[in-house]
Queue: 4 jobs
Job 1
Amino acid sequence: MFSDLMYRLKSLFRRGDAERELDEELAFHLKHETEKLMRSGLPADEARRRARMAVGGAAQIKEDVRDEWIWRWCRDLAQDARYAIRALRQSPTFTAVAVLSLALGIGANTAIFSILDAVIMKPLPVRDPGQLAHLHHTGDDSYTNAIWEQVRGRQDVFSSAFAYGQTEFDLADGGERRPAKGVYVSGDYFRTLGVRAAIGRVLTTSDDRRGGAPVAVLNYGFWQRAYGGDAHIAGRTIRLSGHPFEIVGVAPREFFGMDVGNTFDVMVPLASEALIDAERPMIDGRSNWWLTIIGRLKPGVSFSQASARLAALSPAIYRAAMDEDMPREDQEGFIQNKLEMKPAAGMSYLRDQYGGSLQVLMGIAGLVLLIACVNIANLLLARAGARSREIAIRLAVGAGRGRLIRQLLTESVVLSLAGAACGAVLARWAGPAVVALISVQGQSQFLDLSPDMRVLLFTAGAAVLTGILFGLAPAVKATRGTTSEALKQTARALTERHGRWSLGRVLVVLQIALSLLLLVGAGLFVGTLRNLSHEQMGFRSEGILLVEPDLRPAHASPERQVLVADELLTRMRGIPGVEAAARAAVTPISGATWQ
Amino acid sequence: MDLPQGTLDLLILKTLALEPLHGWAISERIQQISKDALQVQQGSLYPALHRCERKGWIKPKWGVSDNNRRAKYYELTRAGQKQLQADEAAWRQLAVAVGLLLDQA
């Protein structure tokens, strides 16, 4: 059976070789035949003619030989599949139950796998992501603009490097805020990543100048949502936190930035931060840690070489970027900081946060599929009992056992492929639902869940594997036993002849064991989920609302801001239903801290 | 004389039991030993050879023929030897049975 498959595959994939060898083999034969005839005294021409006649039509021979290669196998397979579909149609209830449970099993697996694929396996949609290095120092990866300028000016290990900082813009002109995810990017951002614009142009170093014309690049999805995919978007103006920016282009559809699971709406040059936060620009603040730095390694430079070089440069960089106001006792420690790097392909909040849980979820989904398999194997076994006469007759009229097993396996694989097709449809819907489950409201996670080659292979592989898994044991069992015995006995008698460890009982035991495992696992899972949502945070979170007023657009003086805040607080206390209100710069679990 | 269905595979296996041969030599050998009674047509020989190869009974090997030409030789595999024994026994049984019937019926 194995050599059979290898032979056919060889003839399929090495078709050219096989054809050439066959030609050579046949020519060799013709030559020998001719020589034999010449030895018997015939003239060369006549010998050649007779030999050709004796050999027969080369085309016909070749056709017959090719029949032995792949085609007959395909023909058999098609025949088996047709027969399988006919057999399945005869028992629609069984087929429906089996396809449905497989659709759920395979669908769940495909959905989880496509998320796992998007979070862990898909490479960043940029040029050669393996060469990108992400800078960090002890336990942190944010830098001040002063450090970034030093890195940009001094480093000689990167072919190019960039820094970016995430922010939030207000798209509204007064009134209720309309937040948009913004990113400040340094001039070489797009060039380093090798990302080209879908429309217009991307940002370049000439845009990243203090006092330069304010320009912006839009995210593809944002462009679709907010501008209806306007083809003449380049040149239009967008107001970001009250400042007009000229839109120069749209980023490609698949580009979501550097962080898997996150996306952006608008990208503007780093230098324009000074324009938006005109009162206290972070770009000038030597104690504002807000930038992420990424570099592309020079060709031929390894990560360890680059790390060593960067470590050697560190003291000079930190010395030059030090905040003059820093207390003396802290200065020494600051200079001793070291720049390190790790592959940028591995940076994702989502991956760090959910990578492990996703793998557990994948395991659970696999277990569900396994239970579905055992379930269907049991059904098939019962069906095989009912079909024992049919099988016995086919064995009696000369069908080989191997051939019959293959036929039964084809039936199970057809079943599982049908299940996989339904499952894939299910997964298209379930994938985003799971992502929505892990997204907090207003903080949507962005994941590229479009099925790629890996997901398709996974689903197809899962289908074929499950088909064989649940089909093999019943098929082997169904074709065992002598034919005369089976022909005499009724189906009932045959299925009742269970031994102590009959396949049916083993399957039931397996099913119960797996279900129990899953039940306990799911119970623990729900328990954890309950604990998380009822976590004691040290205060009562029920009925508390957080209001974040943005006073920047009013350009009020600090003294006036305090007055406005007091006024707001008084008015809020006056709203019916409000029990109490308070004001704070740093709210609990906001992630911000103060010392 | 036409060969009964399935007999050609047996003849090929038997011919190859002694030594690896190329296609032409196999047909010659069958013709010689059967004293010209059996003539194997190319039209059935090559499909049969490829069928035996597919079933793993014989495996091909490129070698050099007596007159220094590149030729595709076939040799018997272990599976082929087993198949030969089984087929040979079955054939002999059948021949005896058919013989008895023809003699006595």
Job 2
Amino acid sequence: MSNEITRFDKKTLEAVEQQITEYQKNGQIHFPANYSPQNALKSAFLVLQETLDRDKKPVLQTCTKESIAYALLNTVIQGLSPAKKQIYFIPYGNKLTAMRSYHGTKAVIKRLTNVIDINAEVIYANDIFEMEIIGGRKVIKKHEQNFKNIDSTKIVGAYCIIEYKDKNNEKQEYIEVMNKQQIDKAWSKSKTGASVAKEFPEDMCKRTVINRAAKHFVNTSDDSDLLIDAFHKSSGAEFEDTTQNEVINNANKEIFDGDFEEVEETKPELQAETSTKKEPKKAVKKKAETPAEKASELFDEQTPPFAD
Amino acid sequence: MKIKTFASSSKANCYQISDSETTIIIEAGLSLKKLFKLPDFDISKISGVLISHSHTDHNKFINDFLKLGITCYMTFETAESLKLDSTFVQIIKSKKSFKIGSFTIKAFETQHDCAGSVGFWIKSELENKRLVFATDTFYIKYKFQKINYYMIECNYDAEILEKNIELGIIDGCCAKRLKSSHFSLQNVIEFFKAQDLSVCEKIQLLHLSNENADAENFKNRIIEITGLPVEVY
């Protein structure tokens, strides 16, 4: 087995490295001054070697070579590093995908040529928050937060500000505001997210609003298509590319024989009470073993991939 | 077995299955107030309600039934998420059969963006007929045997969906969610190709999308594949 991995490692890594040098030569990507694509690649590979899939098998053995190469390439094109928890490698079936964390999103946005900074803040119930729409642009006039107001259970919304320079080199702000209802809706789309979000609501609110702002902003930027493409591929491509894969791998295979089991007559009214009492323990135990635990393993600050 | 589809869409779902002895409801998406107006609905005959998952279009009016002391069957995850507090909630497990009158029922796992979602395999012991009900799932793991009636979601056509995304009618995010939570025509076709249809009498396609479906085309495509009568809701 170990031989197989090393062989695999060299080939894939070399191919990816070659591709990157080519992009650099052609001037298609520019890395930040202190970013070494080679180092990032090596560190990504170290992380990959320890990444396991659902069945606790190393992804290097179960995922296709192409998908691994592609995930590595996406990581490096975006100038991200898994060592900084900016990106995670997640297997979907036999396809490996690179998923950005919100630190990663911030890092990529800051790399866009005209961006100065990106920040997000949470709004609590008793905060003084005033916003206005001027010429179709949201402008935050005031946000006063008393330290005493900070209360995870009383979040009413969140906003993200991206500062950038426009054509005339003047400072502009792109603002995305979401109320709690919209954030909740984004969370509800995620399988594991809702439960994690309850535990770390501030971080998750920020993450959601940053992701939304980033999406809008990235699409209107003039940066290289290569970077933008890689950005989108690691934001949500996993749904499109892998759901059909999952269908092909799992659908219509297992035989369901309804007649097989011996049936006992149940008396619902009598059983109702006992079974509701019995069930929770079992089910809760099961839950902790799978999605929640997985999420905390995979994501920094428990950040799962949201469909927001 | 008689099948009545009272409502089937992302707004509300409610179906009635009966044989000569027992009548059950699948999904409580319609209020009793509305159901009472329907000629085919008789509350006194309802022996139980099956709930597939916790999204409201499938259970919004479950309390109407619980209040009348009608047992509602659902998985633990569904019951937990609906926060129901009633002795008439019966927890079921997938692949464990239970009986309601002359029906033997077994839930099976479905693939939706919702914990504990299930479909139902229902057999009328009286008539020796079997029915499979599955909605809100983007595929079904199983191959069923000797099924007389299929009630299967057929939500969207992948081709129409792509066009709608291009035209901006459907948002990319919605489309992503759809693809990993609802049954496409293309995947339904694959489903029926894999099934044993030797004794099948009728197919019902459920839960069609407003924007991304073409009922007439869906019907014809499934008739083409199966050669069976197809009803579309």
Job 3
Amino acid sequence: MQAPLALDRETSPLPIVRLSDEDLMGGVAEGDERAFTELVRRYQGRVTNLVSRVLNDREASDDLAQEVFVRVHIHRRNYRRGSKFSTWLFTIAANLAKNEIRRRVRRRNWFSLDALQEMLSDSAIQLADPKEGQETALQRGQLQEAVGRAIAAVPEKYRVALVLRDIEGFAYEEIGQMLGIPGGTVRSRINRARGMLKRKLQPLLRKEGL
Amino acid sequence: MNCRQAQNLFGAYWDDELTQAEREWLEAHFAACAACRTAYEDLGRTLELVGGFPRADVAPDFAERALARARRAAAEPDRVPAVTPRWIPITATAALLAVLGTMVYQWIGFPQGPARRDAPIALDERIEQPVRISAGQVPPAAAVGSREGGSSGGAASGALVAAAGEIPDSLFDHAEDVEFILDAVTLRKGRAHTVVRAPQDQPRAQQAVITF
């Protein structure tokens, strides 16, 4: 049984940062913008990372992650209090990411592999440890670029499950709830995605001696 | 188990979801099979690379922009989910109940009350009641005509009164009741077949007699 939500945040016995996600969502449902902002702060990194890895498009991922939270706000009264907030949130995120992939495929506006390679290379170099030598950073960047390309090459329905499991670390049951599929199907999709990734990355792993 | 079965367990082994028996068997297989051991190591390195993929950057003003965008979305009526008016489900339920009630009423039928069922049918007084006329009797019209004629009118009316006392309630003569004897019939494929002959060594089948 969850503690009742204190509607007046100023007189709440708990500071807003200590309220549970579900309590904060109860506040959002009643129009509390501070509760909404706190939820965004808690999950902005994971949501942005999820859509970024699924889309493999850093610029678009910011916009899509924003849209995820806008949808949370619009449909705030549809959230059922007893359910886990993160599962509901990532269900929205996964659906939006899948829709975006399909929209791009329909419009044939998928970015070129060259642009992807350049983008991933920039990202990897920026994220590399500055203390490392330039050669090591480049090697790491190339590896991350290859991993990004390999993930992007996995078909959408396997890719989303793979990112939720192996990057975001969700349990199989939660992924099943998010994607609306049984746990056995989740395991099957993830195993297939892992096999595809391994086949794509195996030459690189051997070459780099990893 | 063979190498294919071992490879099917790789994912569960990585996720630490194997039973103790499966784990022991797979580790024994790894000790004996270099190919499977190498394949699993490749999978492990792949998943470590994926798991270690650098996380995407988040802009510092992400939360503020999300809030502003949510406010704008709330101001756009086409983005706010439409709320179904409450009278729609109530009206739909009432209409459904009415339709169901009508169907049940037609299916069961409305039971007639005993007073209505047993009430005698009122005859219209204007309808002339049939009169049975025996041979040799004078028809009422003729009797009336003769009465108008003025001769033997008293004797004719007396005979009519006597004849009226003998008139039965209905046109049927109950002294000659009619019996309909229904032979036993059998139904085969929806068509009635009369049993022509009953077996001689068995008692005769019961007959249904309807008497009017």
Job 4
Amino acid sequence: MTTAQTQPPPTASPPPSAPEPPAGIQGAAWKWGVGLLMCYVIYGAFFIARNAVGFVGDSARIIFFHVPCAVLSSIAYFVAAAYAGLYLFSSHPEKRFNLELDAKSAAAMELGFLFCILATITGSLFAGMQWGTFWNWDPREISIVGMLLLYAAYLVLRSAGGEQPDKRARLTTVYILITLIPTVFLVWVVPRIQALQSLHPTSVLANPKNTSAAYKEVLYPSFLAFILLFVWLFQLRFRLYKLGAKDRSR
Amino acid sequence: MGRVADTAGAGPVSAQAGVVTSSRPAWLSEAAALFAKDLRAEMRTKVAISAIGVFTLSALLLLGLATAALKEAQIPIPDTDLTRPAWDPAGKMALLWVLLCFAAFTGLAHSFVHEEETGTSLALRLSMPAGAVYAGKLAFNLALIFAVALVATPLYMLITGMPLGPPLVFLLVMIGGCTGLAGAATIVAALAAKARGTGALYSALGLPILFVFLALLLNAAKTVYAGPQPALDVVKAVGGLFSYGILLITVSALTFGFIWED
Amino acid sequence: MPARQAGKTSASGPGRWYNSDKVQREDHNEASVAWEGVGHRFGARSVFSDVCAQVEAGQVCVVTGPNGSGKSTLLRITAGLLQPSAGAARISVNGQPLDAVARRPHLGYVAPDLTLYRELTGAENLQFFARLRGMTLSRDDLIARLSAVGLRGRGRDLVSAYSSGMRQRLKYAFALLDQPSILLLDEPTANLDVDGAAMVEQVIAAQRRRAGGGVTIIATNEPREVEWGELRIRLEPGR
């Protein structure tokens, strides 16, 4: 759902050489707001939260960055899948096969790829500090690699199908829906496979009683910060697409 | 007077000479016709079979050579004087599945890629609905992968000494695995063929889907050779395999039309 | 024999699983084609725009235009193989509108980019496509159809061994399998010799005389072929 851009009415003076700065979710207020929130999170990660019990050195602080990124990379995929489903199956004639929906799902996939890379890197750093090796094949690591492969494959398909936008849109949206099956299995089934040992301290974090108040002070804002970051980047990316589309149709 | 339509009902003979209509559901007979055509063409040209066959046989030979020493290796069981084979049966089955995955992705693309490259997909689009095309191609790929698995698995067991384990579970895992492989390979082939991609695109698209499936296969492999265990664990493992394949095939069937049509 | 309500328009989409809404294919179906503001673009490039015409039963329409003006594209849109960027190509049979998928059993389509299976024989190709349309061809029927397009005695040869002219003839046998009420011919006499061209003329004449009136749409640049149609449309490039 795009937010309405409120442009000031054209004045009598000659047309402005630069476009008006956008209001709404791409606007400067948002940019500064997310930036400040993120600064708080970074500060809090190092100065407000104390060292956690059972973790090597300061390594637990990575939770504030690693976990939101990992969670968001999965959410991004489902956002993309929702737009893809709308593109193909919407009963609304305006929305169905509307290339803007495809652009939105592509934007979500690109951002998901970004967050997935970040999650993999931070996770690997953490594993290196905590357990000595930078990679073990535990289920959550398998999951994140699986998502990484998926995003990469999507981007490869997007560049390969490139000549005509509607053909590319059809192929990529279908691919997103088909890969719903592996994703659902990655997110919910693979971590539960008994046969694979888990090194991940996930169950510890999920229980709110286990984290001190100081941690909560940083953890919840960090989730909020990353979510807002995602939304803001998403809107920016979509706006870029719309500018490009205007340019192409001229 | 015109010809009686081919909807459900007793099979009528038309007034037109030499034309008989069928009474099965239309898409099933269309898919069967496509399957028969693909089979006939494959018997004549042997493109897919030779590609898979050469790959599988050479992979098996190479595997046999490379793992000859590994087969004999033993590692000690802690706290006892006994040893166990370093390469356990679950590991052997895992490698078999890797081999079958590669074989599938070598040979199962041919059915769609050939149609796109020669341009015969246009004639098909004019003659049959998309769903029937998918059903026919899937049937062909299923037949192909089952045939390969039927030949490769006994050979593999001979070469590596992989035991059978409980026969029913083994059979179910093989069937579930092949079904999932065929489902994945078919839809990815359709996508890659339409995107006019090379084999690289085909592999790139299939990798995420296969990656998850392989994790499930590994789990199932462990279950086959885990000895006596609660039946629920077996059901979960085998069920996971089948559900993945069936879900994948269902979603593919629902979305295939969008790939196939321009 | 009641023909059921024809398929829905755009909402049904290309993902349909089976041919549920078939209008019975009969000898005396009356068909018509209407182009309502049809335009198409590939990416940013506009091929043609705002084509408006109506072709009634028993008529022959010829579409001409320089290379790249979109004649083949217009035919593909009419066949339901391509969704136009603007407007619609509507086909109705016996007064019932047919959507892009439902119209295909009523079409005979011949074009340069149509290819039949090279690894099968001519007869096997016809048998296969006949089976897809719910028909089984007897041996006599096959021989008759092959002879009608001038391929008598060549049914047992692989299509890979056919000359380009023979392949074109086989395409006509393919298109005419089910006595279509609408014939779409893109470059009808491509690769054909004098006899072949005569065959095409006969096919078009037979289509005109068809009970109920068959529609023929030809895309061509040959001046002789332009004479075959009473309706003429000229496509200008880039408009």
